[in-house]
Amino acid sequence: MTETKEKNAGLAYAQKIADELKLPNAGVQAVVNLLQEGATIPFIARYRKEVTGSLDEVVIAQIRDRFAQLEELDKRRQSILSSMEERNLLTDELKAKIEQAPSLTELEDIYLPYRPKRKTRATAAREKGLEPLAKEIFAGSPKDCVTEATRFVDSEKGVASADDALAGARDIIAEWIAEDPHARKEMRKYWFSRSSFTSTMVKGKETEGEKFKDYFDWSESVTAIPSHRILAMLRGETEGFLKLKLNPPEEEAQQMLERRFVKGRNTSYEQCRIAAQDSYKRLLAPAMETELRAELKTRADEGAIEVFVRNARELLMAPPLGQKAVLGVDPGFRTGCKVVCLDRQGALLHHDVIYPLFSQGGGSDGSASKAEQKVVELLKKYDVEAIALGNGTASRETEAFLRAIDYKAAGLPSIPIVVVNESGASIYSASEVAREEFGDYDITVRGAVSIGRRLMDPLAELVKIDPKSIGVGQYQHDVDQTALQRSLDDTVMSCVNAVGVELNTASKQLLSYVSGLGPQIAANIVKYRDENGAFAGRNQLKKVPRLGPKAYEQCAGFLRIRGAKNPLDSSAVHPERYDLVERMARDAGLRVDDLINNEGNTAKINVGKYVDNEVGLPTLKDIIKELEKPGRDPRSQLEPVKFAEGIHSIDDLKEGMRLPGIVTNVTAFGAFVDVGVHQDGLVHVSEMADKFIKDPSTFVKVNQQVNVVVMQVDKGRKRISLSMKR
Known about the structure:
CATH class of the largest domain: Mainly Alpha
Oligomer: single chain
CATH architecture of the largest domain: Orthogonal Bundle
């Protein structure tokens, strides 16, 4: 019975979501069914295109989230119905209203008058027997309220006079007005459209709260205020530097209530007018401000999370160097530069320290030449193919040292030197993941390894770090952390599965984001690999403990086995379609091997011939594309940025300088750009182009190389203003 009820609810939800998002009902229903069966978003988007109508990951996530909202709404609806039924308050009319309430807000408005309350002024008045008087006044009945109120004077109940009785009656009326669903709906609309967000300085906090000085005297309409300003002011309030107020024009709001509840000019309606004013100031206005604050915070969170997720995706999908032997360098002055040698799989072969900038004693004793000799020796011994240099302290000076080495004279080929963003590397170095990987090494070695591996494969390395620590976004620590984590998990999973994962070299952290796996099965895969050697084929995954048929179905297409006996095991073709590919090859008089990387042979295949009830053209076209370029990486080619020579610190900057840089972060108000001085500069959205740009992310992306002009340098506050349009 319960299963049937849930199924019917699911059908109703799917229809509602389809109507809201203007999507085919069949596709939405298919997504809902697949999600309830345990399918992941990447799997549905990639391998179930026929049943969903080729819906992409963004739309599938919207369906999932809206479905969850509707489920929560119905849970609350049932809870309210049960509560009211237990207290014998449920009438047929009320039940119908509750069952038809389309949103949580309207549902709570209906329930508000019946919700169990703590003692209020209205409940106290009712205990004094004043509700009959309140009803008479609210209906406009008494011609003389004072005379009528005299009947309710009762010193034993605490009603000493007619004025006391009228005051109590007004308290009851004020609560009725505040709990009226129609009044709340009208007032909510008014507050949400006419309110201003006002910020003022807390007296005596001028100096301490300097960073919030832009908001010491600020007011802006709630319909126009952007998310970053909302979060900035809320942080200022939390830290005790700002006072915030939300409100629309008060007189107009009170007039709205009077028009609804004050119908005449007799003494009863005068009492109603006073009650309406009290209801607004004491009950409705605080409730509306609380609701509006929550709504603005939610809106700001959504905006900030969207910015953060977009930036994180760009960072995670940064171009990889690929499988190359790398020398990782974590730069430093007094303590020297930590260097590590990594093989093509990222394994640590050697670590050392060089002092190219200062000797251990702080003087100059030829340590630079010793450092150069050491670098050349390591490059030769470990056949290094690229140098990864962290962008932290002493990065520019170390880069100059590395570029000054005469590699040709040393008998070495030209070796690329790539500056790597090391945000979060220190977090990784001290993490449990790093201790597990490199328990016998100190954090400086771990940090250098992370820098080297980030060059080889940014995605594989960054999944080991909390995304909130990788240096992109705005106010990410102020937003709803549950919502942020859910969005980040979706993003990381999307990126990992879009790229695909090499089964025989991937860490358990990377494997845990593969569709259908998770931390425990990922750990089991690594353990099985350690105990039994490299996987020979995808089918061998079925031997991994706890990796059942459902998990295999979800993960298999996203895992790659380079050099496998079956060439399809290194592609994104799902094992469920291997028989189909083999049939295609046989029909063409070829072997499967003949279709791999051979557009001439795949062009001979008439995909329309293989359409049936299970497989349609979307999947068949995907298969052909994958055969032509098996396991293709969607990430772009690596293009190392080269900063301007002679510009090492903020002291070297002058207004008007034109410099190359790389975008490190994109926010709602502009983009931060690294120009090689250890302090990112800001390109305000107004300085991005001659034309108006509303959303900076439509103009620049994280990791994009740009040219900028220095507009202003504030050395005291360490602020650099840049322009991209001059």
